[in-house]
């Protein structure tokens, strides 16, 4: 395992603890100088570059910026859906993840060093990924209940009665009528599909959920209720999340911290209230004032 740079080592934690300094919780996800380039008209062009931050368990980070600023690319790098061209992403891998060779590391591990089996395990159990368009995150040809039960089956659950009862209870938890569990998702409204996608992701109690514009494109009233629901679930389940949004109100409501991206780079980061109430970078000031100005 290669340690992420720039982080205090275990011994310095111990001495800080000794002196009565508050103990820093272990990092869940760590990005260091993360970058990705795509070829555009024969030339590589950086979609995002030089992004660094640490995310702690139970913490919600919003990534904001205008269209094309690199938010979704960053999210896909963090979730190992894309490989970094520069830098690295480390994740706190649990001991119970599959370890076929018996030699794979646990603790904070570089995602680039994980086997396909371990990455698949993370994606199906310890992580969730909520897509902007629910149909990209659902299996549209199986029932709503099967969509929720599927991730449990990936963990080895086979008892049909248990799978149905878990699916039913999660559907109710996201305010869906459990009586619709045998219906195909295509027969659900957009807001219902999004709630189903959230249930599908949370059924395995992931520690980290990636969300790409989770409420964009829905009616304003549906959006407001969905945001409340997400906030309740994040609190109740102590989820860590990285939420990509162009909507500063979503960042304010869901996230304790935020990154502001422009042209693939982070121009400002900090506590959400501080960044939104006292933006330092001219671009953040512009974003904030464009929302406030009628
Ligand atoms: N698969 C790809 N191939 C080529 N270029 C890409 C690819 N994905 C993203 N890009 C480019 O990378 C840049 C950043 O795109 P990205 O989708 O990450 O931005 P974004 O901030 O999420 O935008 P939006 O809010 O519109 O989704 C854009 O210039 C985009 O055209």
From TrEMBL:
InterPro entries: AAA+_ATPase, ABC_transporter-like_ATP-bd, ABC_transporter-like_CS, P-loop_NTPase, PhnK. Keywords: ATP-binding, Cell membrane, Lyase, Membrane, Nucleotide-binding. GO terms for molecular function: ATP binding; ATP hydrolysis activity; lyase activity. Residues 1-22 are annotated as: Disordered. It comes from the Bacteria. GO terms for biological process: organic phosphonate catabolic process. Residues 29-288 form the ABC transporter domain. SUPFAM superfamilies: P-loop containing nucleoside triphosphate hydrolases. NCBIfam families: CP_lyasePhnK. This is Phosphonate C-P lyase system, PhnK. It comes from Albidiferax ferrireducens (strain ATCC BAA-621 / DSM 15236 / T118).
């Amino acid at each position: 395992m290669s340690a992420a740079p720039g982080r205090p080592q275990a011994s310095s934690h111990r001495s800080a603890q000794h002196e009565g300094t508050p103990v820093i919780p272990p990092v869940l996800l760590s990005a260091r100088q993360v970058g990705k380039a795509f070829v555009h008209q024969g030339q590589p062009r950086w979609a995002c570059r030089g992004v660094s931050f640490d995310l702690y368990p139970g913490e919600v980070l919003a990534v904001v910026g205008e269209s094309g600023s690199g938010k979704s690319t960053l999210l896909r790098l963090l979730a190992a859906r894309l490989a970094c061209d520069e830098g690295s992403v480390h994740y706190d891998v649990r001991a119970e993840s599959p370890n076929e060779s018996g030699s794979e590391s646990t603790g904070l591990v570089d995602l680039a060093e994980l086997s396909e089996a371990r990455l698949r395990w993370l994606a199906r159990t310890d992580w969730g990924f909520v897509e902007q368009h629910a149909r990209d995150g659902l299996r549209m040809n199986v029932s709503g209940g099967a969509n929720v039960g599927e991730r449990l089956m990936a963990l080895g659950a086979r008892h049909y009665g248990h799978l149905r009862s878990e699916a039913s209870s999660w559907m109710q938890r996201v305010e869906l009528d459990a009586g619709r569990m045998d219906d195909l998702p295509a027969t659900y409204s957009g807001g219902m599909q999004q709630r189903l996608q959230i249930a599908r992701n949370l059924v395995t109690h992931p520690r980290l959920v990636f969300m790409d514009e989770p409420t964009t494109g829905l009616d304003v009233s549906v959006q407001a209720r969905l945001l409340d629901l997400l906030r309740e679930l994040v609190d109740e389940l102590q989820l860590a999340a990285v939420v990509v949004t162009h909507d500063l109100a979503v960042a304010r409501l869901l996230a304790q911290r935020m990154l502001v991206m422009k042209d693939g780079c982070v121009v400002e980061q900090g506590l959400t209230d501080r960044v939104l109430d006292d933006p330092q970078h001219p671009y953040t000031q512009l974003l904030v004032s464009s929302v406030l100005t009628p």
